Amino acid sequence: MALPIMAKATAVWLVDNTTLSFKQIADFCGLHELEVNGIADGEVAQGIKGFDPIANNQLTQAEIDMAEKNPRHKMKLKHNPAADGEEKRRGPRYTPLSKRQDRPAAILWLVKFHPELTDGQISKLVGTTKPTIQALRERTHWNIANIAPIDPVALGLCKQLELDKAVGKAAAKAAKDGTAMSDEERLKLVSTEQSLQMDDEPRLPSNMSGLETFSLSSSDEEEKKNEPVVDADSLFNLPKGGGEDDEDDDA
Fold it and tell me: Which intervals carry biased composition (Polar residues) (predicted)?
């Protein structure tokens, strides 16, 4: 589905100027419903000026009126004849200049916590090149000593849904190829939605497997049986029958 230009600014305008539901705005702008809810609450897109889709020939007033009357109606982007024949650009996504310095930290995080992702998947997620990814994998990057791994979602370089989708594809490919995975790797391949539904379950690291039933209770009881019984006299080594000596000293 084609999306409007300046999608977040368009969502801001629709929230402020229409009675459309959050889902309708999210579907039209390619955003998550919770993200639109955050725009309405003032927690998301602060400082972004609304972008009028009607004045910019992306939406008609009739389409908005129809959607306001029917909450199930999905708005469609106004057809632009000048865009016919254009294809989506292939290759790494565009990353704003202000965030390009954060890409090495995001790549290092993906390489460390999701080694199953291919260079192509990482390139699409954060908008980088394969030589950069390879340098960070091999720790030959010129600035590797000063780079700390940071979640690309927290840096704003990709969305959580995009990361989950890429990890899900990696999991499906691993299952298809019959590649054996450890418990830690399986946990990494669980999506955010699935992990929220999982029961909390204590797990031991793989290097401590086999120690689940280890106990010191039996040996402690045997040691206590072999210990000598200590009474007050033996502990303080008090002299016996010292009453007469004490009276002589007083005299």
Answer: 206-218
Maximum distance among all alpha carbons in the chain?
A: 126
Residue type for 172, please?
A
DSSP 112-175: HH-TTS-HHHHHHHHT--HHHHHHHHTT--TTGGG-----HHHHTSS-HHHHHHHHHHHHHHHH
How long is the chain?
A: 251
What distance in Å separates the CA atoms of residue 161 and residue 152, rounded to the nearest whole number? 12
pLDDT: which is higher, 13 or 179: 13
Summarised one tens digit per residue, pLDDT across range 194-238 is 444 545 444 444 455 555 555 555 555 555 555 565 565 665 655
Torsion over CA: 211, 213, 216, 218 (sign): negative
Cα 149 to the center of its chain, rounded Å? 13
CB burial readout 131-162, b (16+ within 10 A) else e: ebbebbbeeebeeeeebebbebbeeebbeeeb
In the chain, the amino acid numbered 199 is: D
The confidence score (pLDDT) of residue 225 equals: 57
Q: How far apart are CA 56 and CA 4, in angstroms?
A: 10
Residue 24: how many CB atoms within 10 A of its CB? 23
Answer whether 64's CB lies under 8 Å from 75's CB.
Answer: yes
Give per-residue pLDDT as tens, 46-62.
788 888 988 888 888 99
Instruction: Answer yes or no: pTM beyond 0.70.
Output: no
CA distances from 239 to 58, 209, 236 (A): 105, 57, 9
